[in-house]
Structure to design on (321 residues):
């Protein structure tokens, strides 16, 4: 089968397209013939050796796929050959075939285009987990960082589903349009040097929940307008800067900062992810959520697609299909 291989730690253009044997599904795994892959920010971290997990070189990157089940490992009863599915995998997705544990595979309705399916499991799974962790409730004000990113757009849509008021932080006017189309109520610019003042100018009250996939200045600025009892969900550091904090603010304003890890929760609490996915798939099938596909590129153009993501030229998810 064809596969993109990471032979050395580095950037998108160091990946090599080659051939390798098909993977074999082990106990509790299915083989998926991949029709589309979601291109994730985490891929950039993974191939540069800066991700929390460092696979042994060489390895095949790619964490989000959609396609059909083509083989079952021993003991698998929840899927059958031919099922249309999407999956989160630790790596190995940028290939013609990948294997995934059944707990990380979600059934996809036939009516959903395969590109949308490939932009579903990680983005929406991560967003739903983060909002649940924040206990975001109707009427609360949530600030979403990187709100036109793949996880960001999912957070905006799902926060609106919960009845929250959404302030979306984005980098340019094209991304602003995407965040508004997802239902954002207010927009602030990630390029602003006075973000906390901009936030205060669009919402009368302070922010109840901050969803932070960006870190750096976004975290520092937005914390200044976090309400009494406010919660920050740390999702990632797309800015490349991991902020630090003097803890007295949390005490003085009765606030909490929580990390949220979709990947680890898939392993530690698979039943939580399965129940979230079941609910999210119904929203997907009924059109109540709609993955935002920024661009679709052929499988052979992975390095260019990753470079676009790195250059912040993607609004929603870029998909190989
Ligand atoms: N913890 C979890 O469970 C989990 C799960 C999935 C992803 N993540 C993390 O969430 C983050 C977003 O992932 P994603 O796949 O949604 O990525 P994405 O589509 O590229 O979105 C990232 C957003 O971050 C913003 N950003 C701000 N500063 C940036 C910089 N210096 N470089 C690049 N982007 C910058 C960009 O928005 P503007 O250009 O509009 O400012 C961009 O839209 C990543 O850090 C990823 O590792 C965490």
């Amino acid at each position: 089968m064809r596969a993109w291989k990471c032979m050395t730690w580095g950037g998108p253009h160091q990946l090599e397209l080659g051939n390798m044997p098909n993977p074999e599904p082990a106990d509790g795994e299915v083989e998926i013939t991949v029709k589309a892959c979601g291109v994730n920010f985490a891929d950039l971290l993974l191939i540069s050796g800066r991700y929390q997990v460092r696979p042994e070189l060489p390895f095949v990157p790619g964490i989000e796929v959609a396609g059909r089940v083509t083989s079952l490992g021993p003991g698998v009863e929840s899927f059958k050959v031919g099922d249309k599915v999407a999956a989160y995998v630790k790596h190995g997705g940028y290939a013609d075939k990948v294997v995934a544990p059944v707990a990380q595979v979600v059934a996809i309705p036939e009516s959903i285009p395969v590109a949308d399916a490939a932009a579903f499991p990680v983005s929406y799974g991560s967003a739903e987990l983060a909002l649940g962790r924040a206990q975001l409730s109707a009427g609360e004000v949530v600030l979403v960082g990187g709100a036109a990113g793949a996880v960001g757009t999912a957070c905006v849509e799902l926060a609106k589903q919960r009845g929250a008021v959404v302030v979306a932080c984005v980098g340019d006017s094209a991304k602003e349009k995407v965040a508004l189309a997802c239902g954002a109520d207010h927009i602030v610019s990630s390029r602003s040097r006075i973000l906390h003042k901009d936030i205060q100018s669009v919402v009368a009250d302070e922010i109840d929940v901050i969803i932070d996939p960006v870190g750096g200045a976004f975290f520092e600025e937005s914390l200044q307008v976090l309400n009494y009892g406010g919660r920050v969900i740390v999702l990632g550091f797309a800015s490349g800067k991991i902020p630090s904090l003097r803890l007295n603010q949390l005490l003085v304003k009765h606030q909490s900062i929580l990390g949220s890890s979709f990947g680890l929760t898939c392993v530690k609490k698979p039943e939580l992810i399965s129940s979230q996915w079941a609910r999210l798939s119904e929203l997907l099938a009924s059109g109540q959520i709609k993955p935002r596909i920024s661009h679709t590129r052929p499988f052979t153009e992975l390095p260019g697609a990753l470079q676009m993501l790195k250059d912040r030229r993607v609004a929603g998810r870029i998909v190989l299909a």
Q: What stands out?
A: The chain has two domains: 2-120+291-320, 123-263. The first helix runs from residue 41 to 48.
